[in-house]
Amino acid sequence: MSKVKAGGSTKNVKDSPGQRLGVKRFGGQKVNEGEVLVRQVGQTKVPGEGTFMSRNFTIHAAKDGVVHFVQRKVKKFTGRTTTRTEVQVR
Question: 22-89: which CATH architecture?
Answer without folding.
Answer: Beta Barrel (2.40)
